[in-house]
Amino acid sequence: MDDKLKEALEFSNYRLTLNNQKLNLKQRMNTMLTIGYSNSMFTATLELINFVQHLLDKNIEQFVFIDDNENPILITALADFHSKLFSAYTEALNEYYNDHEKIKKQRTTKGLVGLNV
Amino acid sequence: MSKFDRGVLLIAYNNGKISYEKLAIIAASNVKKHMKNNHVTLLTDVNTFEALERELTPEQFAVTFDHIIVEKIEHERNTRMHRDSPWTEFSTQFNNKNKHSIYQKSPYNQTLMIDVDYIVGNNSLDVIFDTDYELAMYKDAISVRNYKPRIWEQKLHPDGIDMWWSTVVYWRSDSEVARLFFGIWEHVKENYQYYKWLYKFPGVLFRTDYAASIAAHILNGHSIDNVVAELPGKTMRFSEQIDDIVEINSLSDYVLLCPDPKELWKNICSRVKNENIHVMNKLAILRHYDKIKELIYE
Description:
The structure holds two protein chains of two kinds. Chain A is an alpha+beta fold. Helix content of chain A is about 60%, strand content about 15%. In chain A, α1 runs antiparallel to α3 and α2 (about 45-55) packs antiparallel against α3.
């Protein structure tokens, strides 16, 4: 095979693997965003975190939220709810960032998936 | 028998070609390692239990399983084609026809049933035990190559109802909805040809995913509603039967070789860390059994 073509195909495979690994990290991050609260499940999104913060800023004590399975849930401890959402979001994003930094530095397909063959 | 409060139920029936007792050891150990709600019950038959006793020392047995239910059972015939990589196919007996009976047999008030080829790599499923949801499964899935499942694993028919995966099922034993759900599942099993005609799905193999999906559809009033909740994370990761496992770095760090399902000669490697994965190629797991066992009991 022509050397230039071989090199290009290797790079193509590297980019494909890099893209797949980035998607894997995102999937892992999404898994970490779910919290259990008030007998229900919620996904910690920026929108939800900021909305709860907005309610806290307005001194609102309780509010009804739609959980991950479309049920309306009354939350009475908004500060605690915010803290749990914020901490899940922070933890997920930090892990995503750290793992993303690691794969960014990898220059080979083997390195991307941690293979020592 | 008084019930345990919360726990994980595994089912393992050997079939001569796949060592389900070894898969059960791996599944149970991963639950023990990664989950907080990690009381494990194994539902099995006499042959598989004897194989399990040969495989583990009494000490290993005690740290792996908390409770064992051994049944004398005559399995109904259900032949399934498996793939082990793109290039190997084999058929074997698939003992899944009594899966609906887990509702009666579970020793828990809150049960999480997981298939033994579901590798738990994190604690995300613990969240479901702290909800008041009565019944939960996964509807959406994405492969370790980040592809959607085939259309027949998204819907029972391209214009039909959504498919729910029976790989992981959570329910509360005091739930009327759960009782009805498993009852309909059994009814669909007994009238499978009729429901196959009605819902227009293919194949001759009895698929518990399809029976569970029809049960969910009927309980939703033949419509779309949330009588079945979605499990934490909402998306189940899976690896295809054509995938192989290249390397296992730890109990929650797998490197898989994943051919493109449409162009089988095009492979990429995918490393999946700290995730739960439904590994459909059971022989791929078993090829690494000795290493996994070493990691479990080291």
